[in-house]
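User: Structure please.
Assistant: Input sequence and predicted structure:
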Amino acid sequence: MASQPQPHVPRRADYTFAWMLLGVLGLAGLLVFSGIYVFGRYLVRQISMDIHQIDKRVEVDTAAGSLKVQKGEPTEAELRLPIYPGSRRVKGDGAMISIEIPAAASLQVVAATYQTDDALPRVASFYRQRLSREFKERRGRSRVEFVMRDAEQQRRVIIWRARHTTQIALANITEGTTN
């Protein structure tokens, strides 16, 4: 007597491994999210910010660094550039910005724009005589630019004709490291 073949019973798929993998991934995601949340809360508690506003000066101090902005007319000493005699500061233009990051770097930008009724060639001649040989001169159609760059500093004088006045933009950018 021949044995009768047993009917083929489909085998049930075993999803145990897939469920274990999903569980491990879900747990890992939960740990990462909670770690980010705890670290974010820690940072918020550790960083304190002090903001001071005195006249035209704003100072923001944090544990990560400080930012100081002073609006107004910078002096020749702050600009480290001569101001053309008899020129008038363009209203609302001129500021000193300082950024300091402990144990990293600092940046100070001092800039102002002036105007005069004198002709562009006369103003350019004044700066040509007053600036050192370190300054490179660039000329355009109605523009003259004097630029000096070294490892930590960049100074610029840009002179151009606008309407009936000669505009003079002065900028001193100093980079450094803080200890």
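The chain has a mean pLDDT of 81.
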